[in-house]
Amino acid sequence: MTWIFFFLELLMFMFALVSDKFSRKFNRRYFAFICVLWAIVFGFRAYTIGNDTPAYADFFMGKDSFYGQINQNPDLEIGFLALVKFMRLFTNSPTVLFTILSIWLFILVYKIYTRVCDDKKCTFNLLVFFIISNSFITLMAATRQSTAFCVLLTGICMLIDYQKFKTNNSSVVKRKCYLFISFGFVLASVLFHKSILFLLLILGICYYVHFTKKQMYIMIFFSFILSIFFINEIGNFFNQVLMLAGSISFTGANMDVMSIYGSSFGDFNQNFITLLAWAVPVILTIYLSDNDYVNTFFFRVLVLSVCIFLVFNTTFLIERINTLLVLLGFTQYLPYNKERNINKYRPIYFIFILLMLVKAGMRYDNWPSSDSTIPYYFFWQK
Predict the structure, then answer these.
(1) Does residue 98 have a pLDDT over 70?
(2) Which one of 11, 194, 212, 269 is most buried, counting C-beta atoms within 10 A?
């Protein structure tokens, strides 16, 4: 099943073309339907789908794996180990683990997207996340990191709700307890994957540091120039940093994965188009959006995630970390301006997205045989 991901993306694209013609309620229901489909594809995958999946499947079943054996105190994060051991009290089926994580993830995606962006933009914004790069594979196959993302997103979702929760007539004690639990989830995510430390640092910058539109233009332009002329040097530099830090296995993973996906990235012209597809629509969104919309946490996440991709798109580990930033930031992909009619600019976005949809189809059709994500199989097929 080479085209299963592309089929879902095509469903999203076709609806995004006509989403304005339907009510907000229908848009929200369709978005929920899309999230259910993605959860099924992620959760019901065979144990061979995704290069990390076989090792996690063996680990959960108590077999020897790349990550060690679950009953022999492997050197993994204590939060993930605790969760896995708790679930093994009820089942040793990896499909149950993968399905629970997938449902958890897409419930959070639904809740966050429907809270921070217009209902009629949700499907379009999530579509961009899926087709603009292969990074969504991280959410499916990188089980530990995906679990950490779920814990972190739970805390973020609760913090979003807290903004409304604190305006009602609830007692001060209840509000403080809710806030404490919210931050508890955010901080606990570090116990599931160490990379979350970097994410919390970046999210903290997005929360506390404000940027003007001019500064955002400069950040994206500077990142774009770096990505064109110095991308290999940047990748090599971070490989050396990882080696100096003692993360030899991480460096090996980075080099192996980039060599696998190199053939599907295309030549310089195709890469240049990809970089333009990341940079130009976001610059247009900054230009069209009003200052109140631009000066929000999630919009700053959008800008920073684009800059990180442009600069580090050949550095695999940083790209994995950036996956969550892109997922959060792209809630603001389409512009908003309460004083200006911006509907006439929608065709520009659709042209870029159509180009990226075609390029996604090319990636799936030329998927490297060294990676097991495609062809896709359900767990009962293989």
Answers:
(1) yes
(2) 11
Give me the amino acid identity at 194.
K
Q: What is the pLDDT of residues 326-377, one digit of tens each?
A: 999 999 999 988 877 787 888 888 888 888 888 888 888 888 777 788 888 8
DSSP secondary structure letters along 136-156? HHHHHH-HHHHHHHHHHHHHH
Q: Buried b / exposed e across 201-212, counting CB within 10 Å, b at 16+?
A: ebbeebeeeebe
Does residue 152 have a pLDDT over 90? yes
- The amino acid occupying position 63 is K
Long-range contacts: 359-366, Cβ < 8 Å, 24+? 359/131, 359/266, 359/270, 359/273, 359/274, 359/277, 360/5, 360/6, 360/9, 360/130, 360/131, 361/6, 362/266, 363/134, 363/264, 364/2, 364/3, 364/5, 364/6, 365/2, 366/263, 366/264
- The DSSP call for residue 192 is T
Residue among 150, 178, 149, 147 at smallest CA distance from 162: 178
